Amino acid sequence: MIEYVVVALVSLGLLFFFGTSLGLLRLPDFYTRMHAAGKGDTLSSLLILIGLALYHVGQGDHVTLEMGLVSLKMILICIFIFIGSPTATHAIMKAGYDAGVPHWTKESESENT
Q1: Under a CB-based contact definition with an 8 Å cutoff, are residues 45 and 52 in contact?
Q2: pLDDT score, position 64
Q3: Whole-angstrom Cα distance, residue 27 to residue 102?
Q4: Overall pTM surpassing 0.85 (yes/no)
Q5: Burial group, residue 27, by CB count within 10 angstroms (0-12, 13-18, 19+)
Q6: Is the separation of the CB atoms in 96 and 31 below 8 Å?
Q7: C-alpha distances out from residue 96 to 24, 31, 35, 55, 107, Å
């Protein structure tokens, strides 16, 4: 049963990574691309790591200390990603704003075509 949950979590994580990649390629400006990268990267990393932590715990007949510690480390990595990724994305976007990177407008799209 736990294998189905793990497959679902990892598959959803990969789907969100794919969506993030499409967002980086298709969105029109720096700010929307950073938004896609920050949100999609955080969620997909969390889903995949939680799935792997569940898989690791569900491997044996009983949970050993080593299994628990590895899963705890994966959960701690999730917490650090959850805190660090949005903070880094915000800092990069603020640096772009301070550097004067222009926002996307419909007029700027019509000028490019």
Answers
A1: no
A2: 80
A3: 14
A4: no
A5: middle
A6: yes
A7: 16, 8, 13, 40, 21
The pLDDT value recorded for residue 108 is 66
Kindly list the distances between the CA atom of residue 88 and the CA atoms of 46, 61, 108, 109, in Å, as whole numbers in the listed order. Answer: 16, 40, 28, 28
* 47-59 mean pLDDT: 88
Confidence of residue 93 (pLDDT cuts 50, 70, 90): very high
Backbone angles phi, psi at 22, to 5 degrees: -65, -40
How far is it, in rounded angstroms, from Cα 63 to Cα 68? 7
> 3-state class of 49 per DSSP?
helix
CB 67 within 8 A of CB 39: no
